[in-house]
Design goal:
It contains 19 helices and 2 strands. By secondary structure, the chain is an all-alpha fold. It is globular, with a radius of gyration of 26 Å. This is MFS transporter. GO terms for molecular function: transmembrane transporter activity. Keywords: Membrane, Signal, Transmembrane, Transmembrane helix.
C-alpha cells in the first residue's frame, strides 16, 4: 500500500539506506521497500527453457504419482500371461486359456467406460481404490477355482469380475492433460512418456509373470500381481495435488461417441491394433512352448515391448510436424509393413530370430499409439478426459480379446508358427480402417483445430 505518513520515506540504494527529503503535502509516493532487497521465491512451475522429460517432471508431485502409477500398471502386463500359464498348467488347453482371458477383456471393454465416467464425476481417489479391490477379489477367485479344479464356467465368471480394474494409465494421462492444458509440446512429451511406461509394463509384466509361474508355482504370477496392483493404486490415489478436478455434470451429455465420428474412427483403428497385441502374446507363448522353452516366452515378448519403449521415448523428444491424421496413417503403414516379420522368423528360425523380429516390429507401436492418443484427447470434451482415454483403452482391450481368442485358436488348429499370421492380418486391417475413415478424421481434425 502507498505510505500515508508524513515522515520522510526510506530509500534503499545498493544496499545502503538513505533519507529522502520530506515530501510535499501532495498525493503520497508509492512505497519503496526498506533494507536490502529480499530474494524472490523460486518459481517451481515448468520453465520454457527446460525441454523434454526434465520439463514435465519439474512439476511438483509429478514424480510421485508417476512412480506409484507404474507400480499399479505393471500387473496389467502380468495378469494375461499369468492366467494363460496358470490355466494351461492345470487344464492343458490354450484354447480354454485364450477364451477365458478374452472373456475378461471383453467384459473390461464394457465396464471400463462406466468406471471412468465415475472417476470423472467423483474423482480418481474415491473411485479407483474400491474398483481395484473388486478386481483383486476376482483374480483371487480365479486362482481358487483353478487350484480346486472347479468347473470351467467358474473361471470365466471369476475373470469377468476383474473388469472393474480402473484404467490407471488413463488416469495418469488425465493428470498430464490437466497439468499441461494449453501446452501441446509438453503434452506430446508426456503422452510419449506414458506410452513408453505402457511398454515397460508390458515388457516387465510378462517377464515377471513367466518367471514367477515357472520358477515358483503357476499361480504365483497372479498373486504377486494382485499385491502390486492394490499397493500401487492406493498410493497413486493418495497423490491428491496433481489429481484433476471432478466434473459433476458432463459438458456433453450421453456417450462420447454420439455425434463424434472422428473419435469413433480412431477407436475402430484401436480395436484392430489391440488384436495385434493380443494375438502376439498368446501365439508367442504357444511357439515357445512348442519348442520346449516356455520360460523364455516372457523374455521374447519383452523384446517387442523394448523396441516400442525405445521408439516412444525418442518420439517424445521430437516435434512432429504436419496434421496428426496424416502422421497416424504413416505410423500405421509402418506397423503393417513390420508385422509380417514374426511370421517369417517363426517359419525359418528359432527364438533368437523371433526375438529380433519382435524387437523391430515393436518400434512402430509407440509412435502409432502416441499419435492416436493425441487424436483421442483432441476429440474429448473438457471434464471427461478419463472417459475418453478409457474408451481408447477399451477399443484396445476389445481388440486384444479378439486377437487373444483368434491367436489361441490358430495355435490349436494350425500350429504356433502359422499363428503369427493373425497379428499380420490385424495390422493390415488397422491401416485399411484408418484409410477408409480418412475423410471423417480429416474433417473432424479441421473442426477441432
Amino acid at each position: 500500500m502507498p505510505r500515508t505518513s508524513l515522515a520522510p520515506p526510506l530509500l534503499t540504494v545498493a544496499g545502503t539506506t538513505l533519507v529522502a527529503a520530506a515530501p510535499a503535502p501532495v498525493a503520497p509516493a508509492p512505497a519503496v521497500p526498506c533494507g536490502p532487497a529480499r530474494p524472490r521465491p523460486r518459481d517451481r512451475r515448468p520453465s520454457a527453457a527446460r525441454s523434454g522429460y526434465a520439463r514435465i517432471f519439474s512439476v511438483p508431485g509429478a514424480r510421485a504419482f508417476t512412480a506409484w502409477n507404474l507400480l499399479a500398471r505393471v500387473p496389467m502386463g502380468m495378469f494375461g500371461v499369468g492366467a494363460v500359464l496358470m490355466i494351461t498348467a492345470a487344464r492343458g488347453s490354450y484354447a480354454l486359456a485364450g477364451a477365458v482371458t478374452a472373456t475378461g477383456l471383453a467384459a473390461t471393454a464394457v465396464v471400463a467406460p462406466w468406471t471412468a465416467r465415475l472417476v470423472d464425476r467423483y474423482g480418481q481417489a474415491r473411485v479407483a481404490v474400491p474398483a481395484t479391490v473388486i478386481a483383486a477379489l476376482g483374480s483371487l477367485s480365479l486362482v481358487s477355482c483353478v487350484r480346486s479344479g472347479a468347473p470351467a464356467w467358474t473361471l470365466f465368471l471369476s475373470y469377468v469380475a476383474t473388469a472393474t480394474a480402473p484404467n490407471t494409465g488413463g488416469m495418469s494421462r488425465a493428470r498430464w492433460a490437466h497439468l499441461f492444458r494449453g501446452d501441446p509440446g509438453a503434452l506430446h512429451t508426456a503422452n510419449a512418456f506414458e506410452q513408453a511406461v505402457d511398454e515397460v509394463c508390458f515388457m516387465l509384466g510378462p517377464l515377471l509373470a513367466t518367471f514367477l509361474c515357472t520358477s515358483l508355482f503357476p499361480e504365483a504370477g497372479t498373486l504377486v500381481g494382485v499385491a502390486m496392483m492394490l499397493t500401487g493404486t492406493v498410493l497413486f490415489a493418495a497423490q491428491r495435488r496433481t489429481e484433476p478436478p471432478v466434473a459433476p455434470r458432463p459438458s456433453v451429455p450421453g456417450t462420447l461417441l454420439r455425434g463424434n465420428p472422428g473419435l469413433a474412427a480412431v477407436l475402430a483403428v484401436f480395436v484392430c491394433t489391440g488384436a495385434v497385441f493380443g494375438s502376439l502374446e498368446v501365439v508367442t507363448l504357444g511357439f515357445a512352448d512348442s519348442l520346449g522353452h516356455r520360460p523364455a516366452a516372457g523374455a521374447v515378448l519383452a523384446l517387442q515391448a523394448a523396441g516400442s519403449c525405445a521408439a516412444g521415448l525418442l518420439y517424445g523428444l521430437a516435434r512432429p510436424a504436419g496434421p496428426a491424421v496424416a502422421r497416424f496413417r504413416r505410423c500405421l503403414a509402418g506397423m503393417a509393413a513390420l508385422a509380417p516379420l514374426p511370421l517369417l522368423a517363426a517359419s525359418t528360425g528359432g527364438l533368437p530370430t523371433l526375438g529380433a523380429a519382435l524387437l523391430l516390429t515393436g518400434m512402430a507401436t509407440a509412435p502409432t499409439m502416441v499419435t492416436g492418443m493425441n487424436l483421442v484427447q483432441g476429440r474429448t470434451p473438457t471434464g471427461r478426459l478419463n472417459e475418453g482415454m478409457t474408451l481408447a483403452v477399451t477399443g484396445l482391450l476389445a481388440g486384444i480379446a479378439a486377437g487373444s481368442a483368434a491367436g489361441g485358436w490358430s495355435v490349436e488348429h494350425f500350429g504356433a508358427s502359422a499363428g503369427y499370421g493373425v497379428p499380420a492380418v490385424a495390422a493390415a486391417l488397422a491401416l485399411l480402417t484408418a484409410t477408409a475413415g480418412r475423410s471423417v478424421l480429416v474433417a473432424d481434425e479441421t473442426t477441432n483445430t
